[in-house]
Amino acid sequence: MKRGNLDDLASFACIARVGSFTRAAAELKTSTSNLSHAVTQLEKRLGYRLLHRTSRSVSPTEAGTELLRTLAPALRSIEGALDAVGLGHDAVHGTLRITATREGYDAVVRPVLPAFARAHPHATVEVLIEYGFRDIVADGFDAGIRLGEKLERDMIALKVGGDLRMAVVAAPQYLADHPHPSEPRDLVDHRCINYRMIAAGSLYPWEFERDGQSVEVRVSGPLTFNEPALMLDAAIAGLGVAYVLEERAAALVEAGRLVRLLEDWTPPFTGFYLYHPSRRQVRPVLSAFIAAARTARYM
């Protein structure tokens, strides 16, 4: 393959990943006109259209998506090989791209970053906070951070961080006007603050367990968010009952701004995993981050 063809393929993959000629040009340190020309020439050589272009957005066509499924991992493998020889085998450089929820970032990535940055000053870490699942191979990510129960089977997964617990919380002023629930099903009579799962297009059911008995409650209420921080804000304001990770609410409970409810119905569960595609060759920058995650002291 001619070098020009490889450059054009890499340009196409970058544009598809960021969804913009302008952002891709900034990342690749070139002009939008050069990128537009490269993609146009690539489409002519292949004989089919790769990108849908409008004045507001850029997205891959069906043919472009199919090409990306093969192209993205191939480009990452090439990048990994270049990483290995670019600064010598003992040096780590290149960009590590991670997709994570905000909770996953706080629990797993944030504790690792200081030591990782000091040990590998030539490496760059790019974290995208999002709650829906991404195809990390097609979208050019090296790894993701998600709860273990949500992982795809074809991924290599590393348990990072400790177990987690959920917490049902409400403000004292709310509880002054509403009775404390004695069991999960009592929540159907409360004003609950829902969490919407954007990717699934549905509301998250509240899950409980005690003495081997599992209970799933679909609550209702006046507020729905897709950010746990906003759910907590609403609970603090006395607007309803929230269901969030224990560590997010712990300081507020200790300070008396929130009250913990149904604590004996929320046992620990398996926490976050760092996952990545099953590849024969893992990029050095990812290997270094995994090593840092293995040795990190998670609170």
Give structural notes.
With 299 residues, the protein is α+β, with helices and mostly antiparallel strands. Helix content is 39%, strand content 23%. It is built from 9 helices and 15 strands. It has helices at 3-18, 21-28, 32-46, 62-86, 102-119, 172-175, 228-236, 246-254, 284-295, and strands spanning 51-53, 58-60, 94-100, 123-129, 143-147, 155-159, 166-170, 193-197, 202-203, 206-210, 213-217, 223-225, 242-245, 259-261, 272-277. The strands form 5 sheets. It has a 5-stranded mixed beta sheet. Strands 13-7-14 form a 3-stranded antiparallel beta sheet. Strands 9-8-12 form a 3-stranded mixed beta sheet. Strand 1 and strand 2 form a beta hairpin. The protein starts with a helix and ends with a helix.
Write the layout of secondary structure elements.
Elements lengths: L2 H16 L2 H8 L3 H15 L4 E3 L4 E3 L1 H25 L7 E7 L1 H18 L3 E7 L13 E5 L7 E5 L6 E5 L1 H4 L17 E5 L4 E2 L2 E5 L2 E5 L5 E3 L2 H9 L5 E4 H9 L4 E3 L10 E6 L6 H12 L4
Parallel strand pairs: 3-4, 3-5, 8-12
Antiparallel strand pairs: 1-2, 5-15, 6-15, 7-13, 7-14, 8-9, 10-11
Rg estimate, integer Å: 23 Å
N-to-C order of helices and strands? HHHEEHEHEEEEHEEEEEHEHEEH
Look at the helices and sheets and give the structural class. alpha+beta
Shape: elongated
Quote the distance from N terminus to C terminus. 50 Å
Q: What portion of residues belong to β-strands?
A: 15-25%
Oligomer: single chain
Mean pLDDT: 86
Q: Note poorly predicted spans.
A: none
Output the strand order for the largest sheet. Answer: 4-3-5-15-6
Number of H/I helices: 9
Tell me about the largest β-sheet. 5 strands, mixed
Number of strands: 15
Helix content, binned percent: 25-40%
